[in-house]
Every structure is written in structure tokens, then in C-alpha cells.
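In practice, a research group might receive sequence data for several interacting partners and want a quick structural hypothesis before committing to experiments. The following worked case mirrors that situation: the sequences arrive first, and a predicted assembly follows.
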Amino acid sequence: MAIQLKLNGENRSVEADPGTPLLWVLRDELQLTGTKFGCGVASCGACTVHMDGVPVRSCQTYLEDVGTAEITTIEAISEDRIGAALQQAWVELDVVQCGYCQSGQIMSAVGLLADNPKPSAQDIDDYMAGNACRCATYQRIRAGIQRAAEILEA
Amino acid sequence: MTLDTTRRGFLKGAAAGAAVLLVGTGPKGAVAAGHSASTNLNPFVKISSDGTVTAIVKHFEKGQGPATGLTTLIAEELGLRMDQVTYAFAPSNPELYSNLFFGGFQGTGGSTAMANSFMQYRTAGAAAREMLLQAAAQAWGVDASALTLEEGVIKGAGQSAPLGDFVAAAAQLTAPEAPRLKDPSEFRLIGNPDVRRLDSAIKGNGEAKFAIDVFLPDQMIAMIARPEQRGALATAFDDAEAKSVKGYIRAAIMPNKAGVVVYAENTWAAMQARDLLDVTWDVSAAETRSSDQIEAEIRAALDAEPVYNVNKTDMAATKGAIEAAAQVVEETFYFPLLAHAPMEPLNCTIEQTAEGKIILHDGAQMPTGPHMAFAQIFQLPMEMIEIRTMLAGGSFGRRATPTADYQVEAALAFVMTDRSRPVKLVWSREDDLRSGYYRPAFGHKVRVGLDAEGQIVGWDHRIAGQSIMKGTPFEPMVVRDGIDHSSVEGAADTPYAIPAASFGLTDTAKATETLWWRAVGHTHTAYVMEVMMDMAAKAAGRDPMAFRMDYLSDGTADQQRLAQVLKLATEKAGWGNAPEGRAQGLAVHKSFGSFVAEVVEISGTPETGVRIEKVTCAVDCGIAVNPDIVKAQMEGGIGYGIGHVMRDQITLTDGAVDQYNFPDYEPLRIGDIGQIDVHVVASAEAPTGAGEPGTPPAAPALANAIAASTTGLRVSAMPMELNGVSFA
Ligand code: FES
Ligand code: FES
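A structural hypothesis for the assembly, expressed as C-alpha cells:
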């Protein structure tokens, strides 16, 4: 059945079962492939998107739960000033390795900086604990978030 | 950036009628050049008359940086800025792009990408430069020595023109046999810490395309229902319930009965239908053992006489020396099975073209494997199979199996259709952890004799575990006199000058499929060597760093380079001056031609909770083409090594894997390591590996730090969390 979604500032209609995880609607139906599948059980964070500005795991967010909430994915996060600052910091510091987890890292980090514009290393470790990076780029993720905080302050 | 990875695609000119200069090596390995796809050469660089310069990257990119690194080599020799070059991945063609270290296999592994390509790519860039200058010299009627090529512009003799103007003429010239390479003192990009990765932006904005992001028109998703008990065979299935899933198409038992393929319109439908499929399994020939039995077999092998005397040393003399020693330090170690768990679950997509050609879209680490397997499965000549290399979301060795396991699964799934629709095979994380290939379990038993002065007088070292290489196409290259070098590397070939050292090896029976896992044998040998050195130092009442130096002082190049990184890491870490409440441990190890020392500093104790505050690393990998990528590889390698020994293992109960998903195979998390400082040694030696060498010293340095904390606990079985250590 057709379901209406508010996605990246547009209204989209998707043909999918209400019980479908948002992750698979984004990837398979809408081909927004920046949002990644890593575990399917909310333990890696690769699938992180925003629902009304709050990071959620799209593998455990079902279409029927989205309702009229605004969904934002990595493809549109550069329009957010925090998202843009993080992307700039990520490039400056070459945070990525394989890159597969990084959409999720940035989406979570936007949530962190929105709540806490000057996070300490400990704040970052606490907030980002659910975003796994098998390449272990953590040190640079931490530095990247702090660099973005600096960019935003400037 | 568009990455057109087809051979025809990247060899054709930028626009119709545009000229193109290709430079690479010919069939005999000599420098060769040409101007069209019909030329028999493997181009490493393609230059179009519009001035576009493309590096053709023959190693796959899983984050370790070859796309940036190999492109840098081309840019360096051509005198270009990094923003004046682009790159494309080479197509699968083992005749043209084989890894010099893999005997006819094109692939990436063993940290060889840079070692294998450093001279090849530089030579291609330098030859292209000379040919362009020669063409310009002819056009302007001057001597080539009067001309320079900088930032894409040829200048001299009062003239100036962009390099693209001379591409057509240069393509008609014969390639110079021995082009002049830059002297290292002239390098502007190689070794420059400010050269950035070429793929950072696309990996931070969702644009990067991994294999799992391939969506071909009308494609089906395939997932495989697999047995709980390893090796069970599917005999029948009932899909009555699966049929209720919208998007479910059908299911079919695989020709080898290893599982049942579920076809669906999308991934979610495939997952749901697979869950609802009721499969009947024949378990008569399935695995029944549990990991306890595998461990018991390994421990028994360590207690018996070893089958192989690795270095053909006098084992009786070693024993005698230890028996006569003033004191003996001994320990037995056990390392469990480990999964690779790359972040992107395994997947690939197969399509058939109207001409009957098969195209595989894959984050292929060793494309020759699936290429040859597909030739057999599809009964097609190699040139009718094309492999498009996509970005890979990590690998750690998992995307290169000698059997091309997941690509063959996809091919079998495709063969069971009418081939009108592309098939994308997707693994879930459960498939990855449960049906995968593992780092084999290994055991070591070591006895070290010390004399009254605390000097080592004998080292008796036995290793037991399942061979990785036996029975694979790599056996002839790696196995000598029955000894799989990958079982003993890092121990039997230790650069330490240890008197009366003997190494014994016993292969144990096949327990699971096994596979190289980031740093292969070094993942366990480095741990044992470096923990034993620490125990021996302690028994001798010596500082662990000074004690090691005694065995690195014969003046061999390896010893000097190990001593150098050990000095650098300990100096930078403030060795011996840990703040109150902290403990330090160190390890130093050579692997893949590189030398790495690491110092781990912890707070807390195994009872109250250990926290890894800081890791200081010094690395000598020869010329670091991109020092920042080398640093990143050390940071990642350290995390990979530490994360697994902290808490991960794969276990079996009655032949079934016990772990399902990340909650039971918990990845390293951001809070697990406080800080990592990496120091890269300036070197003029040829580049060696960076992808793996950071991993081996990390775990033993952590173990040695734990032993140096107030409790003195020696962890000799992994994972640490199940062997007496809690982490804060
Ligand atoms: S895929 Fe959603 S948290 Fe891992
Ligand atoms: S960059 Fe590879 S998983 Fe994070």
C-alpha cells in the first residue's frame, strides 16, 4: 500500500508494507543507498537517520512508526549547518577508511552536536558508543567531532 | 568521480576522436606504451588529449588507501598536483594485473599493495613524462632536456603548452626502457603528510558506492537459508508460510545442497521469507564437534612431540639447555576462532548481457578467484566474464577466499534462474558470523631457560593449529616440507638472536573453514613471542625494553629496524614514567616487511576494570608514500587487534556456531581506547606493508601492561574478558 513519507524536505510516496523497516524502504525502494545495513538489530549504527532531527536506527524503525515525522538521511545532511561542519571536518582529518560506517557516524554526530555543542572526549565516547566502526577510525571520529564543534563556533 | 571500470570503458578516449596515451608494462614486464585497447599492455596510467590523467588502480580499496597511494605515485613522477589526477579500478585480468607476490593471481592481501606497485607505477608515470617531453621537443624542434613538465604544463625554449597537446604524438613513440625516476630528494607528494585521501568526501556524504549499493534494473535479491549445524545438507523445504511474504518469489535447494536460496523482490522480503522457510536438513555428515573438543585436540598436540621441526634445529639440545638452566619460564597459550566481520556484509550481484557475457559486481579482493570459478560454472572463456570492482566496506581478509565462496554462491543462485533478471546475493550479519571462514584456533606452549645472569639459554616453542594454506591454490607457494609458513610466521623466523631456539609445529584436524585474518599467523605468534619475552625479562629482573635490546644487537638490518622503532615508541610513550595509577606494556614485531613497536598504557586492574588510556606506536614501513594513511592504518590495526582479544571469539556447540550478531561478537567501541599516537620513521627503504603490521603488537602490549599492573595477571587464553580481565 502507498504510504506518504516526509523525506529530506520532500513528500515521497512508497509502496511498502507498514511493517517494513525504514532502512529497507530507503535503500531498496528509494535507492537512497547512503544509509547502510550493518547488523539489522540496532547494534552497529550504520543505518542511522534522523526522525524530526533525532538520530534513530532505521533498521529498527518501522514505516508505520514514522507517521508525519520528517526523515533526514545522509544525502541531505549537508543542508544542516552541523552536518556540513562535520563533513568538512571529516575531509580535513581524513576520518574514513573503508567508509561503510561513516554515514551513520556523521548522522549520530549531528545529534550529539545539536544537544551538546562542545562535547568532551568522554561525552563523545558516551554518545557515539552505539556506532561501530570495524576499521576502528574512532580516534579520528572523536577529533572530527571536536573539529566540527570548532568550525561551528567560529 | 565516475569510475568506469570496464576494460573497454577506461581504455577508450575521453571523447570520440580524442587521442590517448597508455603507459604500463608489456607481457614481459618491460615498460610499454600504446594508444588503444588493442595494444597488449597493462596500463597503469591513461592520459587523454584533453589533459585528463587517470591512474589505473589494480588493488582494491577497502579503506587501506591504495587508490590514493597508487595515484600519488603517478602524479609524483608526472609532476602533477593531486587535484590533476583521477583514478579508476582495473578490470579483472590476471594476465595483465597479477600481484607480483601472488604467482599469477590478481589480488590484494598480505599488505602488498604498495610493495608490489611502488616501482611499477612510478616507472609508468616517469615513462609517460619522458614520452610527452619527447613529443613536445620534436614539435618545437628543441632538445627534450631543455623542457620541463610541471603541473600539467610543458615549458622550455620559450614555449609553453598543456601536456594534452602532445598526447597524440607521444602515443606514437616507443616507451623508454629505463625512464629516469625522481630521486627521493625531489619527491613532493610521496611522503608528504598533507596529501589527503581521494575518497574522503564521497564516503562522508553517502555518495560512495559499495557493492551492496548496486541496483540493476529488475534485479532480484537472493539470500540463503543455512543449516545451524555446519555441513548439514538441505533435502527438502516447505515455503507455505514464506509465500505469505509480499515480494517473495520462490526458493530452490542449491546444487551442492549447502542451503536453500530464497529469491525475493527486495532485501526485506528475502529476510522475512528466509525466516519463515521450513528446511529439512540431513545432518548425517554434518559437523558435531564443539569448540571444547577443538581446544582439547590442540592442547593435546602441544603436549605430544611436534610433527614438524620447523627450523631443523637440534631439539634435544634445546631441551638439554633448558634442563640445565638456572630457571625456566613456561606458559601455554590458546587463541580461539575469530570472525572477520567486515562492516559491509558480504554480497555481490551477477547479470548476464544480451551477448551472453557474465558481469559480476563485487568488492572483489582477489578477482582472479571468482573469475576462474565463474569460467567453470558458466562454461565460458575468461574474456566472457567481467568483474566490476566496487568499493569494499572492509575485509580484513574475508573478501579473499581461495574458494571464492560467496561469489560462487551467487553464481549458483543465478544459474538456478532463467538469467533474465540480475541476482544480488546478500548476506546478513548472522550469515557473516555463522557461516564464515575463521582465523583458525591456535595453541602455543613455550619453555624458556635462563642462566644465573638472566640470559636466555634455550627456547622451546611448540605450535599447534589448523593450517590455512593447505588444500588451497596457495599451498605450493607457502607450504614447504609440509610446513605451512603462515602457522609459524612471526615465531620461527623471529629476528631476536635467541640461542638454542627450536620451533615445533603440529597441524590439527580441520575444524571449520579457515582464512587469513588481518596479519594471519602473526595474530597469535606475536602475542606469544612478546609475552614470553616479557615473562623472561621479569624472571631475569630486567626492564622489558632493555632485555629485548640485548637480543636485537647482532647488527642485522631487521634487528636494527626493530630496535629503532622500539626506542622511538618507548621514548614517545614516556616508557618507565607512567603516571601514578597507570601501568605500561610494550611489544615489538616484524610482519609483512614492516617493523612496529607499541606501548599500551592502562589504568585500573583486571578486577576493578582495565581502561586502555593510551597506545603509542612507532612504525617503519620503508618509504611511507602517504604518512597519514600509514598512521590511519596503524590506528585501525591497533583497534582491530585489541578489540578482538578483549572480548571476541567464535565457538561451536555440537557443530553449530554459538554467535549470531554483534551483540555476541561485540566490536571494539569508541570508548575502548583513549588515545593512539603514531610515529612514522623516516626511511629510504622500499615501501612495505601498512594494512596489517599494526595489529600484531597491540594485543601483547596490552597483555604486558595488564601483567605490569598491581595484580600481575598473565593472560594466556583469549578473549581476555573470559579469562580474568574486566574492562572499564
Ligand atoms: S543496521 Fe541498524 S544498527 Fe546495525
Ligand atoms: S570506516 Fe570502515 S567500518 Fe568505519
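Before designing any experiment, note the following. Chain B touches chain A through 64 residues (CB under 8 Å). The radius of gyration of chain B is 27 Å.
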